[in-house]
Amino acid sequence: MELLQNAFNIILYKPLFNALVLLYQYFPGHDFGIAVIILTIIIRLILYPLMVQSIRSQKVVSELQPKIQEIQLKYKNDKEKLAKATMELYQKEKINPFGGCLPLLIQLPILIALYQVFWKGLQPGAMVNLYSFVPSPGTINPSFLGIINLSKSFIVKSLDTGGIIEYYWPVLFLAILTGIAQFIQTKMITPKIKPQETKTSDSSQMIQKMLQKQMIYMLPVFTIYIVSIMPAAIGLYWMVTVLFSIIQQYLIYSKRSDVKL
After folding, report:
1. How far from chain centre, in Å, is Cα 217?
2. pLDDT on residue 159
3. Is the dihedral of CA 200, 212, 69, 197 positive or negative?
4. Over 50: is that where the pLDDT of 200 sits?
5. Tell me: the pLDDT tens digits for 107-160?
6. 149 pairs with which residues across the strands?
7. pLDDT mean across residues, the chain
8. How far is it, in rounded angstroms, from Cα 76 to Cα 53?
9. CB of 101 within 8 A of CB of 57?
């Protein structure tokens, strides 16, 4: 366990922490929020090829929905033939149905590392993790444009008031904006089922539509909850990540786009 923790610190935590401090130190204004945004964009650019592959995989799977629905209707009473026919379709189209999951799995440890950076990295003692070539800023002001304290979550227990719970409303506002952006992104990647292709009498079709609707609405709600209970810096990272993904998806999904990705 200790070996994994050390590897995590060396591979993810320290590089991200040092990159954030460098951006904070050398970007004009020493704005922590701007440093978070730039770091997020750098991470997204590094993951860009994987994300494009993921979005394209999701797009192809979305376009195959009519054929998948036909297979589901044809073999609705035989799960073994249903699974076999579905895999044959994927092999024929040369796609990996799980291709969209890899970037999500990669982003999870990055998100955990960033959580630790934003949670622990603002403490003076965290500066011992700086590389020798990175100058220490002493303390970091976690303000973003002088509007929001990115070290705070929505619910704050203030030591100044004897541990009484207080609410930091700017974080909730950020969480709601992130949830709206997440809704737009989820809506874009959700396969659309045309009415004429849907057999309302088939229970599997109805279940599929129900699950899609739950995903469209529940994921943004979950996003709002997670962002509100974490440091606002996580919310800002999440917001920029989702906006970046929306732009990528738009360029890939748009039939009129001539941009090569």
Report:
1. 16
2. 55
3. positive
4. no
5. 788 888 888 888 777 777 788 888 888 888 877 888 888 888 888 888 776 555
6. 143
7. 77
8. 31
9. no
Backbone angles phi, psi at 164, to 5 degrees: -70, 135
pLDDT > 80? residue 76: no
Q: What is the rounded CA–CA span in Å between residue 225 and residue 69? A: 34
Of the pLDDT bands very low, low, confident and very high (cuts 50, 70, 90), residue 176 is very high
The whole-number pLDDT of residue 208 equals 62
Residue located via tokens 């800023």:
137
Residue among 57, 81, 82 at smallest CA distance from 208: 82
- Name the H helices within the chain: 2-8, 14-26, 32-46, 48-63, 65-74, 79-93, 102-120, 169-189, 203-229, 232-253
pLDDT per residue over 203-249, tens digit each? 555 666 676 677 778 888 888 998 888 888 888 998 998 898 888 87
Residue with tokens 């976690």: 142
Task: For residue 52, list its beta bridge partners.
Answer: none
pTM of the model: 0.76
Question: Domain residues of the chain, as ranges?
Answer: 2-253
**Nearest alpha carbon to residue 60 among 36, 104, 90, 81:** 90
Per-residue CA distances from 75 to 32, 70, 71, 202 (Å): 56, 9, 6, 12
- CA quadruple 142, 148, 150, 156: dihedral, nearest 10: 110
∠ CA 140-141-143, rounded to 5°: 140
Q: Which of 95, 74, 72, 80 is nearest to 207 (CA)?
A: 72
- CA–CA gap between residue 258 and residue 252 (Å, rounded): 9
Cα–Cα distance for residue pair 173/156, rounded to 1 Å: 15
